[in-house]
Amino acid sequence: MHDECLLSMRHINKYFPGVKALSDVDFTLRHGEIHALMGENGAGKSTLIKVLTGVYQNDGGEIAVEGEKLHIRSPQDAQRGGISTVYQEITLCPNLTVAENMFIGREEGPLIRQKNYVKRANEILSELGIPARGSQILGSCSLAVQQMVAIARAVDMKCKVLILDEPTSSLDDKEVQVLFKLMRDLKSRGVGIIFVTHFLEQVYEVCDRITVLRNGELVGEYLTEDLPQVQLVAKMIGKDLDELSSFGKAEVKEYGPDDVFYEAEELSSSDALPFDFKIHKGEVNGFTGLLGSGRSESVRAIFGADKVNGGTVKIKGDSVKINKPIDAMKHGIGYLPEDRKRDGIIADLSVRENIILALQVMKGFFKPISRSESEAFADEYIKALNIKTASRETPIGSLSGGNQQKVILARWLLTHPDYLILDEPTRGIDVGTKLEIQKLVLKLAEDGVSVTFISSEIEEMLRTCSRLIVMRDRHVVGELKGEELTEAQVMKTIAGGNTVNEE
Amino acid sequence: MKSKFQKIFKGGLGQLTIPIIAILILVIFNLIRDPSFFSISVTHNNDGNIVLAGNLISIINAASELAVLAMGMTLVTAASGGQDISVGAAAAIAGSAFVSMLKSGSTITGGTVLLAFFYACLFAMAFGAFNGTLVAVFKIQPMIATLILYTCGRSIAYWINGGATPTVSSPIITAIGSFIPGIPIPTPVIIVIVVAIIFKLVFHFTSLELFTQSVGINEKAARLNGINATWIKLLSFIILGLCVAVAGVISVSRLGLINHETILLDVEMDAILAVAIGGNSLGGGKFKISGSIIGAYVIHMLTITLYAMKVSSTDVKAYKAIVIILLVVIGSPVIKSKFTKRMTQLKNRKTKVSTKGAL
Prior knowledge:
The complex is a heterodimer.
Chain A: E1 5-16, E2 19-30, E3 34-38, H1 45-52, E4 62-65, E5 68-70, H2 75-80, E6 83-86, H3 98-103, H4 114-128, H5 143-156, E7 161-165, H6 173-188, E8 192-196, H7 200-206, E9 209-214, E10 217-223, H8 229-237, E11 260-269, E12 275-280, E13 284-288, H9 295-303, E14 308-315, E15 318-320, H10 325-330, E16 333-336, H11 340-344, H12 351-363, H13 371-384, H14 401-413, E17 419-423, H15 431-446, E18 450-454, H16 458-464, E19 467-472, E20 475-481, H17 487-495
Parallel strand pairs in A: 3-8, 3-9, 6-7, 7-8, 13-18, 13-19, 16-17, 17-18
Antiparallel strand pairs in A: 1-2, 1-4, 4-5, 9-10, 11-12, 11-14, 14-15, 19-20
Helix pairs in contact in A: 5-6, 8-17, 12-13, 12-14
Chain B: H1 2-9, H2 17-33, E1 41-44, E2 50-53, H3 55-62, H4 64-80, H5 87-104, H6 110-136, H7 142-160, H8 171-177, H9 187-205, H10 208-217, H11 219-224, H12 229-255, H13 267-277, H14 289-308, H15 313-330, H16 333-358
Antiparallel strand pairs in B: 1-2
């Protein structure tokens, strides 16, 4: 195995309006190496990849391939420099043949005939051991083979650096193994592979090194064998294991069978795999796991936000059907969505209109809340939650993130819910507001409201939740309560080192 | 003084700033050009009624169909973020239905006119529901969805009356199209007022305004708050259908006949324009019906001003286009934000100067 430097990115910076997406990031790829690029969503992985492939231009720093400085201004520049990418979604043309797909858009001159294409394609395919023929229509191949054809195309274009962006997300286990074989084969030929995935097991199966990013900054580069899975998770989330002292544990209450407010069995939606779940009156529980682990999708299924596919739901022991948000609302369930901008605020409407919206919907189309009544509601909650706004008629879009979030909270509190689902209520808001929201959650629970609380900050969840449901790869992998509610245990369960099952 | 200025442009009138300024400029321009332009006289018309006459009256009268359509179009625009280009063709269908019902009886009485109006409403609402279903359920772009009815609507209107262009003559129809004896204001103007009041009442007694704006601004969030976005969009098209029926009936009554080929020809573009001049975003969301009504009057005042200036009818369209370009560009977000920026700059400079002065 060669060990000299194939690709080096030094001090890469990238700014977007108002955000520093990458700050001073270094990345090194060696010949014949499979290198995992890890980080949570928003950590800067895709930005770094896009800088490397010329989709974005870096605002500082330099990129060199085999010691030669490279100015990448467009995807064509990147390709000329020997950098190729295979994306998660296949970007080839399924209605053309494999051979056509491999040679399309390449400067080969018009003289090479169809037959030669197929011949050359077959040579490359058999050399790489890809089970496809050049004359086959690409769409007739399995997804894995299509992906491999995309890789073969990149290899034939003399790529030195191959970027695989979530290549395994739509493949089954067998197909993944075939892909890994191809990756190892390319590695032995000296190609450097950057592998982006959120499947931790796969990283450990195939990668030599791991680079972790967090919040646009480099956390570090590690040899895979030196970084246990638990530590990798810790690095991605941003907590060091040393830091993990035992935290003040949330109080464990005893619940009887009559205290169950909501109970679901085998609940599934278009986005969530079947899971069982129950919550008691006045209980605060949490769903945890890495972003993309299915925690948001699961709570969305409870609220009927996505198409519900199956399962039985009971509220206070009675069977009910919750297929769309209004059904859930009528049963006293409120939902504060993860993406405030996309799913929460109605940006151009006033704070007042945003506050009364859910209550108005529940009251019905023909029973509008009068202007004076809505003003009173708005004033009440602006005061109660200490919402900082110029006036109740200010468009919500012009408020700060934390205050927008409080308005959405006010919207649900106004409906006086029995069960409130809060998905990342504290993301991207200042520390003071965070604490206010945590306090509010505990106060609601005291008043008998059931709360499901989701946060990327485990510490915050340990402070508020008395029970944590842990998810990984869209499955519930554990349920923690009482003594088990420690950061170390949560991370262990997320990483899969030690699965703890309830009862 | 500057703060007043800012208020008008930023808060104050808000989205009505542009349409009101447009109409003021047109009024001032006409007053300078010919002070008698707005003179209103009281005369007797052919039927011997005492009526008001003058340019202003004809402008407001002639814009009636457009104003009614613009109100419905505003709602569709707000909910779906797109426009219905089939309103002219749908009005031809509604008008034809109206006439065919009138023709089916032997005499035309108040009752039969009312019945014929309901019949026309039924037709227009059905076609509105058709458009609405394509947009709300099948998620087809509104302009593409309504292109279907735009293409075939006048053929359907042709079939309703077996290819004829029948006339209807009755004092009741004349009263709808021009004046009710004893009332000096043109009836179409009264109808516009009534429709506007109905909209106001609907907004007061239902949550239509809040729900429509929510769907138009952020459909995902609206859905997660339990709003049935599909139904809201469909409803907006059905309400536009009602407006189409009203506009069709006014137009038929004005002429006393239905010509499916020419009735309210090209009105769809004017209706969309009225919505835009009214300061409403054609991408949906927040809306003001009053803005669109003013927009409709701006369009007609512009046309009549040009005619009064002896611009030939073939040239009018070109001149109209120039004014519209100005209005739309001034109202565009780019210019607006530039203006606000400039204003804050001016403000900052002034504070700097004043602090210097203090030193």
